[in-house]
Amino acid sequence: MPAAGSADFHAMSETRIIKRVAIDRVTVGMFLEDVFDERGRLLYTENTRVTDPAQVERLKQRGVRHVFINLHKGADTAPSAESKNGETEDLVFVDTGASEREWAYCREIEHARRIHQESFHTVRETLKSIKMGKTFKPEQVEKASQEITQSILRNPDALVSLCQIKGHDEYTYEHCLHVGILISTLAHEMNYSQDQIARIAMGGLLHDIGKMRVPEPILNKPGKYEPWEFAIMKRHPEHGLAIIREHTMKIPDIAMAVIGQHHERYDGSGYPAGLTGSNIHEAALMGAVADVYDALTTDRIYREAWTPQKALATIFQGCDKEYSRMVVERFTKHMGIYPVGSFVRLTTGEMGVVTRVHPGRIMAPEVLVLFNTKGERLEKPVTVDLARMQSERGGEERRVEISVDPKPYNIRVADYISRG
């Protein structure tokens, strides 16, 4: 959500003010927004008035650390009070005409952070178990898949934005998690049912499980593969299916298709079976796009990360050849021409990070401006909603000009995405 002081807020005709407060500062008379526990379960609905301190105690017992309160309807925190646990308080101005999706992002991001962290742990432990020749618990992966799906159904943007958080030492685990998230949000965009999305998510989380049988020197080789090395690498989808069968695990067929076919290509140039067109499961075609997008936008030993825009453009060039055009178009529609995490230059000369993409307005995202028109770093970043500005002012004086590499400017985009 835009920060207080942003120029956009002066143009709004009407706003409501929501405040993020530590749970120990909640008092009788406050009006709560939706309150969820750490598992994402709804505890109190929007417009709930705090009438008894016992309500606050119950929230603490459920692990709630902070809530959002509506200052237009109820009491504010005492000016002199200080949080016992050091929680910061942020004002969030919400335009009354803003979409539910925007506010849903603000509510969901905290849950998404937990899901991202716990799912990463599940993927890492699963793949490590396989590498050591041990069995793994599919119910844990199923649980992670369900939580990813529920988060995406609440808001499809929050978890996707966290895919910009990338380390350098645990690529395989992070990659599997991010493919699981990206393929799930694509399935949601393509109107799959909740159960189907969860099964597809499972396939995404496990899509590279077969790499645990690829020798370490080949798996982590920093340069180009020799033909014999690539021949070994190309067997990892088959290894993945074999691992599942050897452990007699009940994995949904649609997840098995993602594991076994995510390297097949629309024109038959893929592997391991050289399948073409409709012979490839649609979920695997989705997995192919998610897999390549995350790989291209991640730093590797042998290559720096591409900008999201360059990665999407490259994938789009492969339509009807390597990738299904329909799948790529739906993926681009959701991610936007300038996906969340893109570092962009505006026509005004300002530069910043894309923090939100509007459905139907993929050329006019929300941008957190970090550099002014003179290229000077701002002390306080300013959020600019290009779609809203263009609609209200009837013009396009401020629009994205180009995607820029953030590294020369010492910008780590994850720092601006993950804070919500």
Describe the global form: globular
User: If strands are numbered along the chain, what order do they take across the biggest sheet?
Assistant: 11-10-9-8-12
What percent of the residues sit in helical stretches (DSSP H or I)?
40-55%
DSSP strand (E) fraction?
15-25%
- Terminal CA distance: 7 Å
H/E element sequence? HEEEEEHEEHHHHHHHHHHHHEEEEHEH
The residue-averaged pLDDT reads: 84
> What radius of gyration results from the CA coordinates?
23 Å
- Number of helical segments with 4 or more residues: 16
Secondary structure tally: strands: 12
Enumerate the spans where pLDDT stays under 50 for 5 or more consecutive residues.
Answer: 1-15, 80-91, 93-98
| Major beta-sheet overview | 5 strands, antiparallel
> Which class do the helix and strand fractions yield?
alpha+beta
Can you describe this structure in just a few lines?
This protein is an alpha+beta fold and 420 residues long.
Structural overview:
The protein is α+β, with helices and mostly antiparallel strands and 420 residues long. It is built from 16 helices and twelve strands. It has helices spanning 7-11, 53-61, 100-131, 138-154, 158-162, 171-189, 194-205, 216-219, 227-233, 236-246, 253-261, 282-296, 308-317, 325-335, 386-393, 414-417; strands spanning 15-22, 31-32, 35-36, 42-44, 48-49, 66-70, 90-95, 343-346, 351-358, 361-371, 377-385, 400-403. It has a five-stranded antiparallel beta sheet with strand order 11-10-9-8-12, with helices on both faces. Strands 6-1-7 form a three-stranded antiparallel beta sheet, with no helix packed on it. Helix 4 (138-154) crosses helix 7. Residues 1-15, 80-91 and 93-98 have low confidence and may be disordered.
